[in-house]
Amino acid sequence: MSFKRQLYLFHRWAGIVLCLFFALWFVSGIFMMYVEFPQLSRPEHAAGARLLNFSSATLTPADALTKLRWQDFTRKATPNSLEQVSVAEPELQPSPRSVRLAMIAERPAYVIHADNGAQPRVVFADNGEVLREVTERTGEEAAAAFVQRTAASQSEPGPPFDGSFIRYDRAVQTDQWTVSSALNDHRPLLRYAVNDADGTELYVSSTTGEVVRDTHSTERLLNYFGAVTHWLYPTFVRKYPDFWEWLVDILSGVGVVLAMTGLWIGWLRWNRRARPGKPQVPYKGLMRWHYFTGIIFGVLTVTWVFSGLLSMNPLSLNPPRRAEQAQQLLYAGKALTIGDFELPSQGFGVLAVEADLVHYSGQPFYRVTDKDGGTRMVGGSVSATTLPDAATMLARAPGLIPDASVAEAVVLTAYDNYYYSRHLERGDKPLPIIRVRFDDEQHTWFHLDPLTGQILDRSTRTNRVYRWLYNGLHSFDIWWLWQRRPLWDLCVIVFSLGGLMLSVIGVVIGWRRLRYEPPRRSSSQARQAAIATG
Questions:
Q1: How far is residue 308's CA from residue 312's CA, in Å, rounded to a whole number?
Q2: In 138, 147, 177, 399, which residue has its Cα 20 to 30 A from 496's Cα atom?
Q3: pLDDT value for 517
Q4: Residue 358 within a domain
């Protein structure tokens, strides 16, 4: 069998299956433009959180840590199971990776993560009690208070505070709306149904007692046509992360090959030497439509499927964007040392909802998040007086890569193609920020936050190329285009409909041929048949 014939057969058999996936991907991509996968955004979390009130606190962060031992940090979770973490010396005091101040069960508390990656522990700051179990009743009270405060923040009449409008459903390790690994610290999750017009469901962490996800009936329904389909997110697949990654890699990889072979076949079938009056395209009817939609939208289909493959970061081609430890210490001054922090005072302000322990220039600070989404730095001790500022951070920037020189250092007051947010309402990309570019071999860039003194991210030339191959090709994340909506919407929808047409025609043609086309006999078989028939 000739190579060309093998190419045709592969395209025919693989095409009918993969074109179905292509069609689903194009349709679900349109839904995803306007309906996101359920999550508890920063504004939603802030709206439902209680204001920080540490007036009754009697324990410093260091005091709270003394209430815990390594044996308290022996559990990890995945969407599929709970796992035990072995610790060498269970009776010793753990070393913390992060500490957060929050109001839990209406009481001041420290949420402590150990540096072994286990699930966090909560120590109440008023009496040192360790939260060992989140009961159904505790979760119900947390969910009811969350709904009440959310309604108050929206200036709407809230339901009664007695919790009668909340119904406990069950504890889930994972379900369709909690498959993300971002929730691993909180599994299993306690699910509650809210008796409201939106069909709200809330998920409460079994480790911290906080609401960590919300969903609504319309959001859930539309996501079956959006992210669940587009990301191949059915629970029975996504709860096994390794299998899910393997499935997406295989389907998108074969899809790239299919789309490229389709383009190649189109090139082979174009009769460039056709005599006058003879068609250059040897197809009629539906095949002719398929040919021309492939010519117009085929390249786009290749780029979309290829960039979808890149979303999985195969072979770890896209390096991590987190700054190295030594680079972070350039501004922090020291690793997290909770003994530097004094008893939290009332200096958080009237809008604070949570605070993280951080260091800047070796001084302890609370990085405070306000109910309106703003971020502030508040001293963690009387000695913490030097707040971050742009001039100081710029002056220290050359130390990020001592062996290279700074090519450019600017303060960004507007978004661009390498620092942007598609959801400004979330406030997850602050402005202004500092960009520092180095002339090292990797052409490294840093984005720095002059308000908190933190390194927001680091990128190399590889990261930025990858950004265009993935975000640029897949989501059309071009800041010029995004700023001119609905131009962005029109581009994505038109190209998606073109790809959908190409895919649907491919399915119809493939199905017709599988049903009606007889198997092609080889030339030797044809000669033998001719001899047999005389």
A1: 8
A2: 177
A3: 55
A4: no
Has residue 129 been placed in a domain? no
Whether residues 143 and 225 fall in one domain: no
* In-domain check, residue 300: yes
In the predicted model, is pLDDT for residue 532 greater than 60?
A: no
Confidence of residue 530 (pLDDT cuts 50, 70, 90): very low
Structure tokens at 104: 């839990």
Contacts of 99 (CB under 8 A, 6+ apart): 61, 64, 65, 110, 111, 112, 113, 336, 338, 356, 357
**Average per-residue pLDDT in the chain?**
90
Domain total of the chain:
2
Residues 6+ apart with CB under 8 A from 227: 28, 32, 35, 36, 37, 233
Taking each helix axis as running N to C, give the angle between helix 241-269 and helix 285-310, from 0 to 180 degrees, rounded to the nearest 10: 140
Domain boundary among 215, 240, 256: 215
93, 66 Cβ separation under 8 angstroms: yes
Mean per-residue pLDDT, 496-520: 78
Alpha carbon distances (Å) from 117 to 206, 316, 509: 17, 21, 52
Q: Are 176 and 245 members of one domain?
A: no
Instruction: Let me know how long the chain is.
Output: 534
Task: List phi, psi (to 5°) of 210.
Answer: -105, 150
pLDDT of residue 379 exceeding 60, the answer is yes
| Interval 101-151: pLDDT, tens | 999 999 999 999 999 999 999 999 999 999 999 999 999 999 999 999 999
Does one domain contain both 245 and 279?
A: yes
Phi, psi of 237 (to 5 degrees): -95, -50
Residue 301 burial (CB < 10 Å; 0-12/13-18/19+)? buried
Q: Is residue 374 classed exposed, middle or buried when 0-12, 13-18 and 19+ CB atoms within 10 A define those classes?
A: middle
Mean pLDDT of 190-207: 96
- In the numeric block, which tokens belong to residue 326? 């030594």
Local confidence band at 533 (pLDDT 50, 70, 90 cut-offs): very low
Main-chain dihedrals φ then ψ at residue 509, nearest 5 degrees: -65, -45
Check residue 529 and give its pLDDT: 47
Question: Each residue of 33-72: pLDDT tens digit?
Answer: 999 999 999 999 999 999 999 999 999 999 999 999 999 9
- Give the per-residue pLDDT at 531: 47
Considering 191, 215, 239, which residue would you say is the last residue of a domain?
215
Secondary structure (3-state) at 530 = helix
One domain for residues 225 and 285? yes
Is 199 in the same domain as 260? no
* DSSP string over 26-43: HHHHHHHTT-PPP---HH
State yes or no: pLDDT of 534 exceeds 90. Answer: no
Residue 202, domain extent: 137-215
157 and 191, same domain (yes or no): yes
Helices 285-310 and 3-32 pack at an angle, to 10 degrees, of 70
- Structure-token match 């021309």, residue found: 292
Tell the burial category of 34 from Cβ atoms under 10 Å away from its Cβ (0-12, 13-18, 19+): exposed
Look at residue 387 in the predicted model and tell me its pLDDT.
95
